[in-house]
Structures are given as C-alpha cells and as structure tokens.
Amino acid sequence: MKLKLHATPEEVMRAVETMQEFARTQGVPEKMIYGLALALEECGSNIVNHALQRDAQKMFQVAAERKDDTFVIELRDAGPPFDPTAAAERKPSVDDDDVPGGWGIQLVRRYTDEISYAREGDENVLRLSKKILPEAVAK
Predict the structure, then answer these.
(1) pTM for the whole structure
(2) Which is more confident, 94 or 25?
(3) What are the residues facing 77 on neighbouring strands?
C-alpha cells in the first residue's frame, strides 16, 4: 500500500482508513490494527501540523506492508529534519496539566514494537513496525 497525500488532517484520516483496510487483508488482528491506526494518526498529524505547517500544497507519503510476521508503516515528508525517536521517555506526573505536548511519541511507542528514523536526502523517513505474533492471529 502506498499513498501520496496532501498535508491536511483529512488526508491523514484517509491514510489511517486505507492502512486499516490493507492490514485486514494481510491478516493483522483487529486489536493490532487499532493500535497501528492510533500510531499512524499521531505521526501523520505531527507531519501535517508541524513539519508541513498544514500547507495543502505540500505532500507526504505513507506506505504499509507485511513482511513475514511484521507489519511496517513508513511515513516520508520533506519537512525540516526531526527525529521523534530522540524524545525522552516521559512518566506521568501531577504537573502534566502544565506541560503541553510530548505524549504522542509515548502513544506510538506503546502500540509499536520498533520505531526508526532516518534522514534520506531531503526527507524524514519514519518506520513503525509491529510483530504479528501467531497467538495474536489465532485469537
């Protein structure tokens, strides 16, 4: 599955829906699809809102594939270099109401097994991977 999308919230949701449909055809369990959809929506929204500044003339790409027992989502954008994997792990505290943002990467980490970032030419490349365990498929 490969999509080239405009930098709008509607296109992020189109990517999420398309990925969900594709994952179902690949035998990914619904519980995993739910988590992957949340992770994709978070990453796509950050690209649209921060990297591409909601400029609908700018484009980003989303691809998904199943490689044996792993489902991989790849996002590409030509925004400024930004490595979300460098964000420190946050722990909830009583002061969280005063600190905006920073929780998205925690959500992505929760629903994926591996997150990798690379800068390839003038593009940010973020890969999200989730193992599809045989016992999960059977349930």
Answers:
(1) 0.88
(2) 25
(3) 60, 124
